[in-house]
TrEMBL record:
Transmembrane segments: none annotated. Belongs to the Gfo/Idh/MocA family. Residues 130-332 form the Gfo/Idh/MocA-like oxidoreductase C-terminal domain. Residues 2-116 form the Gfo/Idh/MocA-like oxidoreductase N-terminal domain. The keyword Oxidoreductase applies. Pfam families: GFO_IDH_MocA, GFO_IDH_MocA_C. One of its GO terms (molecular function) is nucleotide binding. This is Putative dehydrogenase. It comes from Arcicella rosea. Keywords: Oxidoreductase. InterPro entries: Gfo/Idh/MocA-like_OxRdtase_C, Gfo/Idh/MocA-like_OxRdtase_N, Gfo/Idh/MocA_oxidoreduct, NAD(P)-bd_dom_sf.
């Protein structure tokens, strides 16, 4: 069993990570660092600390999960590696490729695992899209389009999220997820183009983006905005044999906020109304119908992290892959 310390108890720490550590028997959620909330209300057995330094002084801590504000990720991860702790970093990994490369090398020197919380590799919708592509149901894929939109015209009450710095903004927030998904599916693109915009009144950060990744015959479009009130398709795929369109988003975050834990039967299962629509040829027969969405399971990331740390499996979310994501985001920022 690995002893875990969680740095931060906001959305990610409280809802997206702590429940998975608490239900997985390979982890002991030993410590949570929080200065503004009482984690014991939700996880009564944890020890509450006030600083990262207290955690680093605890020799019993094996893994530190960093869920603190984006601008702290590089500094905190570096301190954890120097203290000989394994590290899980909430996205974005770092603000720059240079910082990411330094952490990757430091982890190798220290003989420690460092990974990034790219949990949306294990979303129900993305895993379904991935299977549709891998099973060749659309033939040769020609167009892959993803929208990660929300309607949040009011500025975030958390001031740090609205502060203009290198690691903030929608590109590093939501963009890091769908760029990562594209890299998982297709690798590093041949060409990159993109732009970010500021659309909300009073905003200091980018809150919209339009990205194009060129993979030769395959063209990838990734878009996001915080001012989309009417939901459109989340995934739109066109291939030489057919098309696949998917509405709706993975329900794990909503389930966790509602108190549905990862070890409950209903967790991660989307409603049938969110099933994707496919129109294609299968074994010479034309078929148009729905495809049931696979069950979402962010727990896969946590179990794999345990197995990677204990030498039982290869790490799924490799920092080298996320380094490519950071390079793409830096390139878009330069346009």
């Amino acid at each position: 069993m690995l002893n875990v310390a969680l740095i931060g108890f906001g959305l990610s720490g409280r809802y997206l990570q702590a429940p998975f550590f608490s239900v997985n028997p390979n982890f002991n959620l030993k410590t949570i660092v929080s200065n503004s909330q009482n984690p014991k209300e939700y996880f009564p057995t944890v020890e509450v600390m006030k600083s990262l330094e207290e955690v680093l002084a605890d020799d019993d801590i094996d893994l530190v999960s960093i869920c603190s504000p984006n601008a702290t990720h590089y500094e905190f991860a570096k301190k954890c590696l120097l203290a000989n702790k394994h590290v899980l970093v909430e996205k974005p990994f770092t603000a720059t490729a240079e910082e990411a490369e330094e952490l990757i090398q430091l982890a190798k020197v220290r003989g420690k695992i460092i990974s990034i919380y790219q949990n949306r590799r294990f979303d129900s919708d993305f895993m379904t899209v991935k299977k549709v592509i891998e099973d060749g149901l659309l033939g040769d894929l020609l167009s892959y389009e993803v929208h990660f939109d929300r309607y949040k015209p009011i500025l975030n009450a958390k001031k740090w999220k609205e502060t203009n710095n290198a690691a903030n903004g929608i590109l590093y927030d939501l963009g890091s997820h769908i760029i990562d998904q594209a890299i998982v599916l297709f690798g590093t693109p041949e060409k990159v183009w993109g732009e970010t915009c500021t659309e909300r009144i009073g905003s200091e950060i980018d809150d919209s983006f339009d990205i194009r990744l060129n993979y030769g015959k395959l063209k990838v479009t990734l878009k996001s905005s915080l001012l989309v009130r009417e939901e459109g398709p989340r995934y739109i795929l066109y291939g030489t044999k057919g098309s696949f369109v998917k509405y709706g988003i993975d329900v794990q975050e909503d389930h966790l906020k509602a108190g549905i834990m990862p070890n409950m039967d209903a967790f991660g299962i989307e409603p049938e109304s969110n099933s994707g629509i496919i129109n294609t040829d299968i074994n010479g027969l034309h078929f148009r119908g729905t495809i049931e969405t696979l069950k979402g399971d962010w727990g896969i990331l946590f179990q794999n992290l345990y197995e990677a740390i204990t030498g039982k499996a290869e790490l799924l979310v490799k920092p080298e892959e996320v380094l490519e994501q950071i390079k793409i985001m830096e390139q878009i920022k330069r346009y």
